What does this fold into?
Amino acid sequence: MSLIDIKVPNIGDFAEVGVIELLVQPGDTVAVDQSLLTVESDKASMEIPSSHAGVVKAILVKVGDKVAEGSVIISLEASAGAAAPAAAAPAPAAQAPAPVAAPVAVPVAAAPAPVASNFSGTVDFDCDVVVIGGGPGGYSAAFRAADLGLKVVLVERYKTLGGVCLNVGCIPSKALLHVAAVMDEVKHLEVAGVKFAAPEVNIDQLRGHKEKVIGKLTGGLGQMAKMRKVTIVRGYGNFVSANHIEVDETTGDGQEKTGSKKIIQFKNAIIAAGSQAVHLPFMPKDPRVVDSTGALDLKEVPKRMLILGGGIIGLEMGTVYSTLGARLDVVEMMDGLMQGADRDLVKIWQKMNAPRFDNIMVNTKTVGAEATPEGIKVSFAPAKDGITVPEPQTYDLVLQAVGRTPNGKKISADKAGVAVTDRGFIDVDIQMRTNVPNIFAIGDIVGQPMLAHKAVHEAHVAAEVIAGELQGNKELAAAAFNARVIPSVAYTDPEVAWVGLTEDQAKAQGIKVKKGLFPWAASGRAIANGRDEGVTKLLFDDSPEAHGHGRILGGGMVGTHAGDMIGEVALAIEMGADTVDIGKTIHPHPTLGESIGMAAEVAHGSCTDVPPVRK
Ligand code: FAD
It folds into this structure.
């Protein structure tokens, strides 16, 4: 037995980190990889594991000390043969207190040895990195990898790049929502003495407009892929080994197979195969039952429409159809619409949108549906005691918006040894690496939140790690997904946007927060716009340790253009800003963005645009 020094291993980008918790005491017996202490940077907290097994003789640091790579933290009497195979990397831990969303990636247990490549056929393409899927995750990974000098092949089954987001998600929905917002906006001008005639909607032209928007963006991606010399192989990709993918080539507008196959040999792979809409098994196969893709096809405007699922996607599509003339019902199993956002924000949205709905059914399950000549007849049941549900109702259109399921089980991941969960997700570590060292995964397929901006950030991490490892660039190789928060936006009217800790989460987790709430009824710009129903809310750490100068932990807004403004709150959280930082930042007047500065001033007690606080 010998005394050895346990040191801080490579901690990525951070020069110095603070010790925030000691996890062992002198006399404790520890195993290899057991966490010894928690350190925190301004970005993340990490647990430092033990590189050896043995008995803790002395702890050489205390809470509050600063340590760096190589700092000796513990003196350990090592057991024989107790060393870890290699210096273990620190495992990410949740922030303390848990003020913000934990990183979406999960730590991978121990990386197993690479799966032996068992492919012996002819190879058509050989590359540094192959990317499966051309969505926001996939194309961003491919482009970043190419920009870093790697030879990249991108496999996509459809004829255009852009995935769900550009083709049948974010962009087409926003093209239609913009038209709907303008149609709704002009109605507000009536009070100002400007009255427009009822709009005449040419649905074919509106669909054409949406297609043009998509075409402009996806065409641009094709050009950028060419400029970067990214090879695009059109077809359906499946792993055949940990270094080979077989592509079943496709053609036409859909996924029609040509019968021809291509083999791609790769050093590294990035799985970005995305997700697809969940279809309830009891819904009839009928053109009047659609998912979001079918709804975006905009075949016609129904008289009565049921939105199954009260989440963002369903409510956005409902907004479009309702502005075009449909009457809406919505059914949601949970106790409220737009789960995730604070209830006070959703309440304002719901009040403004009540005229669109005949029935808002919460705590209600859909239990059956039948296609009849009159429409789709849907039956409901209470999701909890004491709820009354309507008799079966008949609809001209039913939108299934009950969630999305990852495509992890559709790429023969097992042939490469990549573990896929029962639900079809692929677990990754904070470098986006799967359990197979040369295979990475990003985007919807690795977990919630299923959002394009999350996919893009993960994509850059995966590409940088791969490039760093292939090129021996330590800085790039240490890239990690360390975002504290990921904003969410419902692009409804008004918009609802939130990021970081919500007030409901703070209550549930017993986190003490100071709230700054600025009602847009006090915003000159919102009043001038005739849209002063909004609210901006910021939450600051009010724990005793914050000594009255707590950092911002979260924020939310309801109001027009809330989605365009929430990025400032995300930046403030990433920068660890407090009420003074935000409140003393001069925001231009008169803008809706000013409401963020004023909400911080409200929390600080220095806002002069709201009534004085009673002493
Ligand atoms: P995807 O975009 O799903 O792309 C995966 C790609 O992989 C697809 O092109 C697919 O064809 C391809 N693929 C799959 N399997 C294979 C295979 N075996 N071989 C070859 N190719 C394959 N997010 C936002 O952030 N903001 C929004 O406003 C927003 N609005 C949305 C609106 C709607 C209606 C929907 C449905 C989604 C919306 N989303 C939004 C979510 C967003 O679209 C997704 O989070 C994002 O597209 C995920 O990107 P991804 O790269 O992981 O996967």
